[in-house]
Amino acid sequence: MNKKTLPALKNFEPRDGVEFDIAPGAMQRWNAAIKAEDKPDEGTISVYGAIGETWDGTGITPARIAGALRAIGDKDITVNINSPGGDVFAGIAIYNLLRAHPKNVTVRVVGLAASAASVIAMSGDKIEIGRAAFLMIHNVWLLAMGNRNDLRAVADTIEPIDRALAELYAARSGNDATDIAGMMDKETWIGGDAAVEQGFADALLPADEAQQATDNKRPAAAARLQIQAALAKAGYSRSQQRELIKEFSGTPGAAANATPDTPGAVAAMAALPVNQPQEEPIMDLKELQLNHPDLYRQISAQAADAERARILAVEAQALPGHEALINNLKADGKTTGPEAAVMVLAAEKQKGARRLDAMNADASAINVPATPSATGGAAAPKAAAVDEDLPIEERAKAAWDADGKLRSEFGGKYDVYLAYAKADANGQVKILSRKAA
Known about the structure:
- By secondary structure, the chain is α/β, with parallel strands linked by helices.
- The chain folds into four domains: 3-216, 2-enoyl-CoA Hydratase, Chain A, domain 1 (Alpha-Beta Complex), CATH 3.90.226.10; 218-276, no CATH class; 280-365, no CATH class; 377-425, no CATH class.
- It has 17 helices and eleven strands.
- It has helices at 24-29, 62-72, 88-99, 116-121, 148-173, 177-185, 192-197, 217-233, 238-249, 263-271, 285-291, 293-315, 323-331, 337-365, 392-402, 404-409, 414-425, and strands at 18-20, 34-36, 44-48, 77-83, 105-114, 126-129, 134-137, 142-144, 188-191, 203-204, 210-212.
- Strands 3, 4, 5, 6, 7, 9 and 10 form a seven-stranded mixed sheet that branches. Strands 1-8 form a two-stranded antiparallel sheet. A two-stranded antiparallel sheet has the order 2-11.
- Helix 3 (88-99) links the parallel strand 4 (77-83) and strand 5.
- The N and C termini lie far apart (90 Å).
C-alpha cells in the first residue's frame, strides 16, 4: 500500500496535568534485547525503546527521527521497530514524518510495536512482521490529575485521538473503523500471522531477520522503563518517578561525581551488577509494614479491592440449592466469576440428573411404569378422583391430602405425584393395573 493514501494525523496539543505513558501490559511483554539483523548498506532507522522524551535521553523522539531522515536523504529507508510504545503525540508526529518521506518506507516489526509504536508502524509502504512479533492497539493510555472537571476535559481531549487512530488502522488494514474501535476498547494483541491475515501487515519477516542482542545496554534501559511503569501504576507522577530512579543511580558503585543527566550516570546505572551486595534483602510482609507503612497500606487496599471484586463475581453466579458450593468458592481465594459459573452449571446438571433418577426409582418401588424421561418409560398409578372442575394443581393437592394410600404409593413424594398427575391430565399416561391377573 502506498503510504500517501493513508491519512495524515493531526498533531494534537497536549493538556496540562496529563502525561502519556507506556501501558503496563506492553511493558511486561516487551523484550528489549530483540533487534533487526544489521544491514549497514541500507538507510535504516531503529525504533528500539520508549516513544517520546525520557529522562535518560534514550526515548525515540520526533526530533531524532527528523535528524535521521535528513542524514539519510532522498533514499528508500527501512524502519525497524521493537518498542512498548509511549507518548501518543510523539508517535503521531513520527508517523507523519515517515509518511511524508518522498521515497519508499519499509517497516519491519521485529519484536513488539505496541500503542504509539503501532501508529509508527502504519507509516510503511510495506509492513513486515516477525511470526513471533506482535502489534498491540488500544485506546490512549495516560496519567491525569485534577478535579472532576479537569478529568472530564481530559476524556473529551483524548476521544478524538482514539477516533483518529481507529480510522488510521482501518485505512491501513481495510477493516471497518467501528470494528477497529472495538478492538482498541479491549486492548488487542495481534500476532504475526494474524497481522498479515487482518491486513495490518503485508508479509512475514524471514526467521533470520531478527536476533537477540548480546550487549546489555538495551536490557538495562528496559529495566529502567519497567521501574518507571511500576511506579506509574502505583500512582507516582513522572517527576516523582525520575527522582526515585535518580536516587537509584546514585547508589554505591555508580560513577564518581556522575549526575543522572549525564552519559556517565546512564552508563553507571547500566553497569550495576544484577546481584550487587548493596541491595536490600527481600522483605516479608511484616518488614514491609514496619519499614514502609504507606506502601503496605496501599498494597493491602489494592488486594482487598481485588478480593471483594472476585467474591462479588462469584456471588453473581448463585442458583438456588447451590449455596454451599458458592460459599466454598468464595472462601477458596482463587476461583473467578466465570469459573464459578461453569461449576454451578455443572452442579445444577448433576442435581437434575439425580432428581430424575429418584423419580424413576420411586415409580419402580411401587411397581408401576416409570415417569417419562430422556431414557424412556411410562408413568405411575392414577390418583383418587376429585372435582374435575378444579385446576390440575388443586386437584392433585386435594387428592394427595385426602388419600393416605396415594401418599404411600408415591413414597411421600408429592412433587413426583404432581408430575405424574399433570402428565395424566394431558393424556400422556397409560394406566396399568398393579394387580393384573
